[in-house]
User: Which sequence fits this backbone?
């Protein structure tokens, strides 16, 4: 029987539980044995109770849950070869030679490197007497499949990541709450949202909440002109009778000289207009709560596809990342998706903002 392990790694996102559930149940359906790897890569490195078989009923009720019930962690040991040696040994002792990782670009990069290094790890384990040839020989190759769990929707080559729509929903609810009090007092609110270097959450929240203005990293405004432009737009809206002002600032917002645009700077600018202005930093409420229907669906379809990808993989297939493009669940070469994701950051560093914008997926550009 094929034995595979499933793990969540990096920052948590709503829908990760649904992804694990789908992998466990699809795995069992396709007659595999499925191991849960707890606490991200720490589960592989430490083994023991952190790497154990999962049964159908172990994931009962997980479909709608937020966060991840198998835990996630930043595991520094796995970044060192010594940690990866321990991980490979723990896997082989349990007969596991396939790993489905639901995480961000760091986690997926780590997984692909682990696969590339696998033969040399086994060689070293045999040489140092940590494994016998008989133990290692049946597991000459490691299969890796990636799924993207992230509220930021920052991975290239896939339209959506698991958790992004749940986070967007949370942001919209919060801004709706703020809106009622803002309109009552005729106030301005600056709402800072997560997303790291990606402006997807901010742009989508801006559209969904009818914000006056949105600041995102991919289309930075002019360093010398953004304050006047912001004032002009907000004033125009007020003159049309709007009783509130809502400005969404992505946490990675910058101007065109790459200087951060902070919520406090935006607030000070609105105060200069004479507006009673407050800042709300939404923080971790954006990551919490249950998964919205779209994330449950995405996680479930991708989990099933991930198991199929494991069963169909050959030593020559590049590690796939399961994505969604124009409503189709697809397999994308993981390395390409990660390198395109990194290319966005490089474009921004070089002030090639049009390039950064073009590298974002279609949903973002629309
Ligand atoms: P998020 O987007 O939420 O930050 P991420 O997967 O990018 O998620 P990271 O902190 O970059 O988060 O990575 C999570 C874990 O993956 C690390 O703690 C480490 O265990 C492993 N990892 C990341 N990069 C590598 C790498 N280059 N080599 C080996 N392991 C890695």
Assistant:
């Amino acid at each position: 029987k094929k034995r595979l392990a499933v793990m969540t790694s990096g920052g948590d996102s709503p829908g990760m539980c649904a992804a694990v559930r789908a992998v466990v149940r699809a795995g069992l359906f396709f007659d595999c044995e499925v191991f849960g790897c707890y606490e991200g890569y720490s589960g592989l490195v430490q083994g023991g109770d952190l790497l154990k078989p999962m049964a159908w009923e172990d994931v009962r009720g997980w479909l709608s849950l937020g966060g991840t019930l198998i835990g996630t962690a930043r595991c520094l040991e796995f970044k060192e070869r010594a940690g990866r040696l321990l991980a490979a040994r723990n896997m082989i002792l349990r007969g596991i030679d396939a790993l489905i990782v639901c995480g961000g670009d760091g986690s997926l990069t780590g997984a692909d490197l682990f696969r590339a290094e696998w033969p040399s790890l086994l060689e070293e384990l045999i040489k140092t007497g940590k494994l016998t040839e008989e133990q290692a020989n049946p597991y000459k190759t490691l299969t890796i499949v990636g799924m993207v769990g992230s509220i930021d929707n920052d991975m290239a080559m896939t339209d959506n990541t698991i958790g992004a729509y749940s986070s967007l929903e949370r942001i919209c609810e919060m801004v709706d709450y703020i809106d009622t009090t803002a309109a009552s007092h005729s106030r301005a609110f600056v709402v800072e949202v997560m997303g790291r270097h990606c402006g997807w959450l901010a742009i989508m929240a801006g559209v969904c909440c009818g914000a006056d203005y949105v600041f995102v990293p991919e289309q930075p405004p002019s360093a010398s002109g953004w304050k006047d432009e912001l004032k002009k737009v907000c004033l125009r809206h007020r003159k049309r009778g709007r009783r509130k002002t809502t400005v969404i600032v992505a946490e990675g917002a910058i101007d065109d000289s790459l200087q951060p645009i902070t919520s406090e700077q935006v607030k000070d600018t609105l105060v200069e207009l004479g507006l009673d202005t407050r800042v709300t930093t939404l923080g971790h409420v954006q990551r919490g709560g249950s998964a919205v229907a779209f994330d449950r669906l995405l996680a479930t379809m991708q989990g099933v596809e991930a198991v199929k990808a494991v069963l169909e993989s050959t030593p020559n297939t590049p590690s796939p990342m399961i994505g969604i493009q124009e409503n189709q669940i697809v397999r994308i070469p993981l390395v390409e998706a990660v390198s395109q994701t990194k290319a966005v950051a490089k474009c921004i560093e070089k002030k090639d903002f049009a390039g950064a914008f073009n590298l974002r997926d279609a949903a973002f550009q629309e």
In short: The pocket of adenosine-5'-triphosphate is lined by residues 9-11, 40-41, 74-75, 78-79, 103-107, 109-110, 113, 150 (CB under 6 Å). DSSP finds 13 helices and eleven strands in the chain.
